[in-house]
């Protein structure tokens, strides 16, 4: 006989509910561990407010903070605990800690652990809450001193909460040197909240579900932000969960000659890597592809890690690609990301929202160099990028990645070799011809189309991207700096060359 699905209760955080695939199973005790400042208190308030919204009563038991401090924390996020109906139980009041009593909450001889536990039980029996947050276990651990006594008291609380139908979050600040293995074995589920302090930029936070009995959950590290308004969790992307059928087709880059070199244009469900030195025209070509997508009535998103909006939009306008109208009517999302603030999980979540909520069909990431520099504390960034590209391919999105080479002429190495992840590679190069420094473009790889192997002159003008005929007499292509010695007419013959690089 199949078992009934467990009833779930929302944590109040959409991303965490997604990781737990529906929320926490009701009626159990859960341990949330993390160093001070990782967001445990805010998460606990989220949990209780979600219970209130679902018609459940809520109790916050505090040993480590005063009720006034909790109200202040909630107000900083725009929440009013009293108005919401959250019951606050300050287990040790100011009177109990006054000089006339000479008591301390950290010595078992002065305030016995069983008094603490009995106080919690009495308040629960009085208020009959469905959800309880217990903050924090470090005080109970100090009171107990003895691990066996501590375990027995926690077990007593667990059974008491279970009899009363409570779903309980116990918060722990990891004051125990090796973590609280006693409670981890008792708890129905364990979630770790962690914080990374980098050398520069904002601290990075992530959580990990270490244990959750009876349900499937997404393992691994999940980035989250703690800011005004509460916690936002970004579940780790698993591309295999997001496959969507789409008709295969090639679409134009906006330039017929470049389409021909690519074997028919850009293919839906593929990613194209633009590689070349600084100033060679990678970004401008990506803008041309976006302009062509908008011209087809599609939506597009452009994520800038390098350049500001104040320079990209005027540059596009000078090339004949006016994007302002599409920005105004919401068909084009242009985001300049702060390199010191963004996390890999947050960036992935932004891309997913653009694709799933806004219907974006073309995505540009400019550039991968800055993506890596923006998140030096991130782990396995290339694996995360691989998952993101796989997700975009499976959703039928055309993705353009820009990767710069070191040095003005492109002699230097790449920050990362992403060519193995790319379906198409478009190589931009400078070359010397007739005493001038010109530009060339060639397709070096394509998994989707039968592409041309020729090298074409490339330039930018008031008409946008221009691609010339194949140039057959090149020298030094492999070395990195090409030199043209042929007699075929060049695009720049008879004029002043590029208007905009």
How many E strands?
24
Structural class: alpha/beta
Shape annotation: elongated
**Would you identify the CATH H-level superfamily of the largest domain?**
P-loop containing nucleotide triphosphate hydrolases
Rounded average pLDDT: 86
Largest sheet: 11 strands, mixed
CATH topology of the largest domain: Rossmann fold
Q: What labels describe this entry?
A:
single chain; 501 residues; alpha/beta; Rossmann fold; nine-stranded mixed sheet; 15 helices; 24 strands; 30% helix
Structure explained in plain terms:
This protein has 501 residues and is of the alpha/beta class. The protein folds into two domains: 8-236, Rossmann fold (3-Layer(aba) Sandwich); 244-426, Rossmann fold (3-Layer(aba) Sandwich), CATH 3.40.50. 30% of the residues lie in helices and 27% in strands. It is built from 15 helices and 24 strands. The protein has helices at 14-19, 40-53, 67-76, 81-84, 113-127, 137-144, 147-163, 181-186, 256-261, 282-295, 309-318, 324-328, 344-356, 368-374, 381-394, and strands at 8-9, 24-25, 29-34, 58-62, 87-90, 131-135, 167-172, 189-196, 204-212, 222-227, 230-234, 250-251, 266-267, 271-277, 299-304, 332-336, 360-366, 398-405, 424-433, 436-446, 455-461, 464-470, 474-475, 482-484. The strands form four sheets. Strands 14, 15, 16, 17, 18, 19, 20, 21, 22, 23 and 24 form an eleven-stranded mixed β-sheet that branches. α5 (113-127) runs parallel beside α7 (147-163). The N and C termini lie far apart (70 Å). The model is unreliable at 94-111 (pLDDT under 50).
